[in-house]
From TrEMBL:
Gene3D superfamilies assigned: 3.40.630.30
Domain N-acetyltransferase: 1-153
Organism of provenance: Rhizobium etli (strain ATCC 51251 / DSM 11541 / JCM 21823 / NBRC 15573 / CFN 42)
Name of the protein: Acetyltransferase protein
Family matches, as Pfam families: Acetyltransf_1
Amino acid sequence: MRTTMTADERKAHMRERIEAGPPPGILYYADGQPVAWVQVGPRQDVPQFNSPRTVSRPLEEEDARDPSIWAVSCFFLLPKMRGRGLSHRLLAGAIDHARRQGARLLEACPIDHVKQSKSVTLCIGSTAVFEAAGFETVAMRKDGRPLMRLELRG
């Protein structure tokens, strides 16, 4: 859907998501300026995460429509902020946000930094960051790209 939108349409779409709630991500500020972002929200709000042809596809088809299953799908850090452990803090904030919004499960499909180290691919997060936060691999559909999951409530 988003790939067929113009820049103005994408901005309007994001504004509508923010106004409708819950917010689709967490911003990190330094010196009063936004310097990093993590996208986190219900899986159903991230259509590209649910395509049956992607490594991030849900374990069960109905998981894509379950509002209690959330996904961490994108990180962005200004270049000057990289290498400072900020991804760990962003992920901790995303976990807290998902838990406060009532999510039951939080999923991600990061990349194994050891296997593929291009910084452009790390916008989806590093496996090591998710492992450190307690995520476990639930599927491995492509070498170096696990589908990981964290249970937020019993």
